[in-house]
Predict the 3D structure of the following.
Amino acid sequence: MAYYLLGPDELKRVVRMMGYELPEDHLPKNLDHHLPRTSHGSTLSYITHAMVLANAGRIAESWHFYRQALISDLADIQGGTTAEGIHLGVMGGCLKGVVTNFAGFDWDRGNLAINPNLPEEWESLKFSVLIRGDRYYFEACRQELTLKVVPDAGASPEKDQFVIGVQGRPEILVYDRESSFRI
């Protein structure tokens, strides 16, 4: 669960602050240990595993668990619990997973990094998100990422452009202009 809540890099940082080191292969080893032992007695288990698998780069396995989470209420995969109410937590987790894991949208300490990793079954992904009053329009396909950021109508940005990370490389994003990047 710590991998889901913090992500592998932040978890490694927190463990380091406590005076310990995690080995480089800590995430795959953890997944390989826990996946066969997990009962998935909650719909939240599917989305948690989907996103941790995505963090590990295991997108095909992630998509399998993500689909289970996505249809959990429609198919009533818990065997009768949907009649008692929808599973809102897993619905929110599915939305979060699309943005943070498959789109790779990461806003950390005022820095934006984007590392799309779409499931093989998806041709593209398109959404918008509001961050600190600015609206980010995002579209990714297999080879291209298109972004546009529109500043809050009531505010003027301090500068007309800023640097973001795309697939680990710095790129310039200009306010109110659509920018395309190779991915």
